[in-house]
């Protein structure tokens, strides 16, 4: 059977499109290889034990009012035949398609990243990092040796991850691992300042706040390659590391069969459609209009694509996408964050409070909001990352 | 270096021994292949999505006051040489040893159990069951076909698991999987009644309560083999099943090198020691004195072994173990449980409330208690198992 409207991907973009269709009372089918929406902005807190994984994941089915859901991996799209190719060989014809397949980590061509560094993109990635972190701590405790962690990338993810890692170590080490003589967290940024998308004053604040947490920041530190025991910079400097976290570089994750630019993003017209296939919309991180790969862009594009689709169904002309930039936030640690809202820029506790409120508000589901608030309150008052369970066979 | 007192296993037995040594101010080393204590009595709620895994696991390190911890898998014991053989080839000499290695699932010699049924013993087992459950629901929804679940074993685990499964389906199906025409949950018990360790009146109550939840109970149903598509009874009856859960049969999990009986349990003297090696204590599920493999026995034996060890260190004679049976509880579902406390036997809401209180009280850690209470409250009032995240590559 042919499906009318098909959405591929249940992230911020796909879900925003689904909700717009729900509101219009128009049926659709949403496909995802996972059964849940993942709130990626808090993934680094799962990796560092401050949140349990289910707190930032919400099942997709109960979120779709007018839509049906299919758990399936889409292996490609046949644009001419207007059908999706599913894993297992099935084909699914569509009339209208919204592609919201997001992005995936990228090694930026640096040797050794895939083998010796860990990414942070999926729930499984976050648990893998947490497991490796707990494992190296156990080994270091038994051998009574020091540990070094290296985070690569001074953007929001790298700053959040290194800050959370430093707080994790500060809280957990004295009580649980007194045998470990010392730990170091290094943050390597290729450019001249942290958080390059923010104003220089906020970059300076982030640098100071991270240093206060004990993170050693190296600027202009361009990584040449990652090896088993550490990271080698282009200038030859070697950073020994027991764990390397790669928090820089993503590329679009387009469906095979779609045109793409060198960054893996799909070029669209201003209406978010493929120029030659106006029945196909592309939204979020995988859209090639050049906007940053952040949740607000995906949310707005998803809804916009759905509205344009609904307009064309009614015989109206689509409208060119216009991004409403409401500003940006990045968190460094307890009581420490930076905020940029239009002309307003501020840092410290007010920015941290705003960050916390925005993130709890954007989370999906009463239960998840409650769990996150509770976990944060406990971590805040007891200075303890609550989730320190090492999985699987050690 | 030689270790004075070594405890192998951080379950109920090992942890009770550790706490007794803590109280006496005597140092020890605790070894476990996992970094956490697992509260197994609530594992079936993780398997059915009512609790997240971290809520019933607590890291061992912060629990040990006078003890050190080593994350290691013990592959055997050399009784004559008084040393433990660790994975990787290392040997760890000891002066006194407390073995608390618990039990593991056992197929009871039934063909096909290992290949076609799922066990419930570890956190990974619970997540595997939850994943498989969510996966078969997705497949059935897409194919619009009915589903059958078979739980084997009418003891507490089988009763709890089939009851929770029935409640999961009752809550989740109408809202999330309206495409599925129907589901059946079958509980197979080889004997003439459910919960054979309880009084007949409570068995009858459990049967009635489970039936009220829609579970179809088959008594005198002896399983001959498990096949890909279902379970075959000794009398030839075939129960088709999309998922088979094996909730019957455990055997002791002794360290290689210890004497064991046919059920994998280690025979000890009344003081919980190996007859030929009084420096080795064996407690909990792996102890061969013939007591049931439940948490209260392990807790009491762990503490008792530690006290006997402390007595011998002081030159006093050890005391023979005496089990203080405080009664037993089993839960069937929301507001439904059975309780047997000495001469007192009751069922229904009071038993359920007692069960809930006892379990929250026995949980370790303020955070876990709060998480479990919160999850239960949400599930109770919203009739929704909160954790429905399908992991990994579908």
UniProtKB/TrEMBL annotation, chains A, B:
Transmembrane segments: none annotated. Pfam families: NDH2_C, Pyr_redox_2. The keyword Flavoprotein applies. InterPro entries: FAD/NAD-bd_sf, FAD/NAD-binding_dom, NADH-Q_oxidoreductase, NDH2-like_C. Residues 5-302 form the FAD/NAD(P)-binding domain. This is NAD(P)/FAD-dependent oxidoreductase. Its cofactor is FAD. Belongs to the NADH dehydrogenase family. Its EC number is 1.6.5.-. It comes from the Bacteria. Gene3D superfamilies: 3.50.50.100. It comes from Thermus composti. Residues 326-382 form the External alternative NADH-ubiquinone oxidoreductase-like C-terminal domain. GO terms for molecular function: oxidoreductase activity. Keywords: FAD, Flavoprotein, Oxidoreductase.
């Amino acid at each position: 059977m042919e499906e009318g409207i098909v959405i591929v991907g249940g992230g911020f973009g796909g879900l925003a499109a689904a909700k717009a269709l729900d509101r219009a009372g128009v049926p659709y089918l949403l496909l995802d290889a996972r059964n849940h929406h993942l709130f990626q902005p808090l993934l680094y807190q799962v990796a560092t034990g401050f949140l349990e994984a289910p707190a930032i994941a919400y099942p997709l089915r109960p979120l779709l009012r007018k839509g049906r859901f299919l758990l399936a991996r889409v292996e490609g799209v046949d644009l001419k035949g207007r059908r999706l190719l599913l894993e297992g060989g099935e084909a699914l014809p569509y009339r209208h398609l919204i592609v919201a397949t997001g992005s995936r980590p990228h090694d930026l061509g640096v040797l050794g990243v895939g083998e010796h560094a860990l990414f942070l993109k999926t729930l499984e990635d976050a648990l893998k990092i947490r497991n490796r972190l707990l494992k190296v701590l156990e080994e270091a405790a038994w051998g009574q040796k020091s540990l070094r962690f290296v985070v690569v990338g001074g953007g929001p993810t790298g700053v959040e991850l290194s800050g959370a890692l430093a707080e994790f170590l500060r809280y957990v080490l004295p009580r649980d691992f007194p045998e470990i003589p010392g730990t170091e967290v290094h943050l390597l940024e290729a450019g001249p300042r942290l958080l390059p998308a923010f104003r220089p004053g906020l970059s300076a604040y982030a640098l100071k706040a991270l240093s206060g947490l004990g993170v050693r920041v190296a600027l202009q530190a361009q990584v040449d390659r990652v090896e088993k025991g550490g990271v080698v910079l282009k200038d030859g400097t070697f950073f020994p590391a027991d764990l390397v976290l790669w928090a820089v570089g993503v590329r679009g994750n387009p469906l095979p069969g779609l045109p793409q630019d060198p960054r893996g993003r799909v070029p669209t017209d201003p209406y978010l459609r493929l120029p030659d296939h106006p029945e196909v919309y592309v939204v979020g991180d995988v859209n090639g209009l050049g906007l940053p790969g952040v949740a607000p862009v995906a949310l707005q594009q998803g809804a916009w694509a759905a509205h344009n689709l609904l307009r064309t169904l009614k015989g109206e002309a689509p409208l060119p996408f216009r991004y409403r930039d409401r500003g940006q936030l990045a968190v460094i640690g307890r009581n420490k964050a930076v905020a940029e809202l239009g002309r307003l820029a501020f840092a410290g506790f007010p920015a941290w409070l705003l960050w916390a409120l925005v993130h709890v508000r954007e989370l999906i589901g009463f239960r998840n909001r409650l769990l996150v608030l509770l976990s944060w309150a406990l971590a805040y008052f007891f200075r303890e990352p609550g989730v320190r369970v090492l999985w699987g066979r050690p």
